[in-house]
Recover the amino acids of this structure.
């Protein structure tokens, strides 16, 4: 039987020499004259980034992890020629190796996952449109053009209950319907691929692993609302995704799947790519439009909504990458099918980027309604180094933290909001006991200060003021009344900011205040930081393990350690700058951070 | 006051052709600035003036746009511009420690170039390889799952390459 060697070529695996692995496989296959027995395919992201680079060999379902370019030789000689697993690289549950009867579906990381948006990632060569077509690619578009009216397409989406995967979860069909009903000589379909949320990379992975699904969905949207132009607005920081998108667009044009008279019908749809330039606010619809128009990406008030008056003043639909990736599957399998997955209010699946202090970090797609416990502890394999779970941050700089007590709440758009967070784009950052919640809130606020476009004062001034308060707290100079002031500012920002960035920027503060008030008070009243992250609240003290070797004294950049040879040393707290050099220099664990 | 002109800077024929092909397209400014930065490595004032002349848009507009977006650089980065990821996952795993280590090793603060023009350090937003946190990127190559102790060796290797 022919073997298929799937080499992951997502950004994370590519960074770990996946391209060399691919080339070495090709060379080995060539060398052994195995061209008819094995085919090497570069695929999109498998999602299991923690253990990358990943190589999967079909039909044996052998899942190899942390593969090096030099391993290709052994893998071909053993697996392909002799039919034996290379055990040292085989992933089998928690550790690598040693398992006879192996099924990839047994892997805990994949067990509870359900892939719709990522259905082709890790299966097909993203740079070859034939492989997408072989997996029913562009069939949904053909079905729409030849068997459905635009109204029926929108109705199917309405039945499916698909909500926008980029953040707030607005029903996709409604947006499309608004644009469809708007009268205009030109309408636009925009794809928001300006994935700015730090810690989220599902859109990038979809574009790298299955760009055609997005192109197809954009054309379907164009058909449904009567638009003939599509633009993908993508972060310039994603060179590989841009490259593969370019290939997909060229190949789909060559085959008449995009462009004039698609499938010989009267329907025309063109797609072009525009680059973002690193501004988080451009994820906001109206700011994104301004940016495509070549301006500073500053939001404008809504209404008018883009569906009525968007790009160049024309009706415009903006959906994010993951939303689009779901559309062809829904059209082919039917809206009803989609509602059998997920929860009543949020049907379907959601892709999360699971990162932080977790064992299996990676990209996971689960049905809506999966609990956080399942995601973090089953799929994610629990907290790294057996540390204690502290919280999960969802929704990035616009979201909030979820704590132990909510671990068993099924997650969907609405439950997350009820918990004081939000879905956002699906970043899920796991924190453990070593992390300081004030420090994390400060990190997000610093981000928002930097990314606020400055147009409206609640956001521009509010984020700065909140940052200053958090900074004071982290340095031990805040007073209890500051908490009340922070709440007031946060609420004002929520009410008065122009766009969603400003309206949600205070969420990390409000949410951490809500769940970790005691930590705030510990910083403010006791002047202590449990985790030691807030350096100003930490003191370095020499304990009795000190043998007087003077190593710390010689390293101290501010000369604040005194003590003679073979005598207990003392750190002058008034001079100490808390750089930690002494701790690093001490071989006897004689300096405590308290 | 004399009017500033773009005499000092030369764009390659390919770049000029690119600009020409975009000249008539609405919303072209950001795409053009990307291309210019790709060629020059950054966007000096002279380049901005030239873009404003070629596209026939006010210099103020060019500056309005290029100062708004983080991706556009107005100063020349080092030959090796070390981009330290400061996405949330990297931050939690010590991205800021990587920055301090690099600053210490190279003797320059963030966004400044070493005297020999070889290195600069930049803090960037999430590069989307959170599984490899903490990490930095140099010339498109990602150095992932970094321990502080590895940083000096990487810098030394780059220095040897010159």
């Amino acid at each position: 039987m022919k073997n298929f060697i799937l080499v992951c070529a997502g950004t994370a695996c590519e960074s770990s020499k996946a391209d060399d692995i691919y080339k070495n496989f090709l060379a080995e296959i060539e060398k052994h004259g195995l061209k008819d027995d094995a085919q090497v395919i570069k695929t999109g992201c498998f999602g299991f980034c923690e253990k990358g680079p990943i190589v999967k060999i079909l039909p044996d379902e052998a899942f190899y992890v942390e593969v090096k370019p030099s391993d290709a030789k052994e893998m071909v000689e053993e697996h392909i020629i002799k039919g034996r697993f290379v055990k040292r690289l085989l992933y089998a549950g928690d550790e690598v190796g040693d398992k006879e009867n192996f099924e990839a579906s047994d892997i805990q990381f994949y067990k509870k996952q359900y892939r719709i948006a990522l259905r082709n990632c890790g299966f097909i060569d993203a740079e070859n449109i034939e492989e997408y077509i072989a997996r029913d690619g562009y069939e949904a578009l053909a079905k729409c053009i030849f068997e459905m009216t635009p109204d029926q397409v929108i109705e199917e989406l309405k039945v499916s209950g698909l909500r926008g995967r980029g953040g707030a979860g607005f029903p996709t069909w409604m947006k499309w319907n608004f644009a469809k009903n708007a009268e205009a000589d030109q309408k636009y379909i925009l794809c928001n691929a300006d994935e700015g949320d730090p810690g989220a990379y599902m859109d990038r992975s979809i574009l790298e692993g299955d760009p055609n699904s997005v192109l197809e969905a954009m054309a379907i949207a164009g058909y449904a609302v009567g638009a003939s132009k599509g633009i993908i607005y993508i972060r310039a920081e994603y060179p590989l995704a841009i490259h593969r998108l370019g290939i997909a667009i060229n190949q789909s044009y060559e085959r008449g799947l995009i462009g004039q008279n698609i499938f010989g019908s009267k329907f025309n749809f063109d797609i072009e790519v525009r680059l973002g330039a690193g501004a988080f606010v451009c994820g906001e619809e109206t700011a994104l439009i301004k940016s495509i128009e070549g301006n500073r990406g500053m939001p404008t008030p809504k209404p008018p909504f883009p569906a009525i008056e968007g790009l160049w003043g024309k009706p415009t639909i903006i959906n994010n990458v993951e939303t689009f990736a779901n559309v062809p599957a829904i059209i082919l399998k039917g809206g009803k099918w989609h509602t059998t997955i997920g929860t009543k209010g949020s049907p379907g699946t959601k892709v999360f980027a699971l990162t932080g202090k977790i064992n299996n970090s990676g990209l996971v797609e689960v049905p809506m309604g999966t609990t956080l416990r399942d995601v973090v502890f089953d799929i994610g394999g629990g907290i790294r180094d057996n540390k204690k779970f502290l919280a999960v941050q969802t929704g990035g700089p616009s979201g909030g933290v979820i704590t132990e007590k909510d671990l068993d709440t099924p997650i969907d758009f609405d439950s997350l909001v009820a918990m004081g967070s939000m879905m956002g784009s699906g970043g899920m950052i796991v924190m453990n006991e070593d992390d300081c919640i004030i420090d994390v809130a400060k990190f997000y606020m610093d981000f928002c200060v930097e990314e606020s476009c400055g147009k409206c004062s609640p956001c521009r001034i509010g984020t700065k003021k909140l940052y200053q308060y958090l900074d004071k707290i982290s340095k031990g100079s805040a007073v209890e009344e500051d908490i009340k002031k922070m709440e007031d500012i946060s609420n004002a920002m929520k009410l008065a900011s122009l766009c969603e960035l400003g309206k949600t920027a205070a969420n990390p503060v409000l949410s951490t205040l809500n769940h970790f008030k005691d930590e705030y008070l510990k910083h403010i009243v006791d002047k202590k930081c449990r985790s030691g992250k807030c350096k100003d609240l930490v003191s370095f003290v020499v304990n009795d393990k000190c043998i007087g070797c003077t190593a710390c004294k010689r390293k101290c950049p501010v000369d604040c350690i005194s003590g003679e040879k073979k005598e207990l040393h003392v750190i002058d707290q008034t001079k100490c700058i808390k750089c930690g050099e002494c701790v690093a220099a001490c071989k006897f664990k004689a300096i405590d951070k308290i | 006051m004399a009017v500033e002109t773009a005499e000092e800077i030369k764009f390659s024929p390919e770049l000029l052709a690119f600009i020409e092909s975009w000249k008539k397209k609405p919303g072209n400014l950001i795409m053009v600035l990307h291309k210019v930065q790709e060629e020059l490595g950054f966007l000096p004032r002279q380049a901005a003036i030239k873009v404003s002349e070629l596209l026939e848009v006010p210099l103020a507009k060019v500056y309005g746009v290029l100062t708004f977006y983080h991706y556009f650089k107005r100063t020349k980065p080092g030959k090796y511009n070390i981009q330290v990821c400061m996405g949330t996952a990297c931050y939690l795993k010590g991205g800021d420690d990587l920055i301090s280590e690099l600053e210490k090793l190279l003797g320059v603060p963030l966004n400044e170039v070493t005297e020999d023009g070889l290195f600069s350090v930049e803090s960037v937003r999430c590069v989307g390889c959170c599984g490899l946190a903490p990490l930095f990127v140099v010339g498109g190559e990602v150095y992932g799952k970094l321990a502080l102790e590895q940083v000096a060796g990487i810098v030394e290797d780059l220095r040897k390459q010159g």
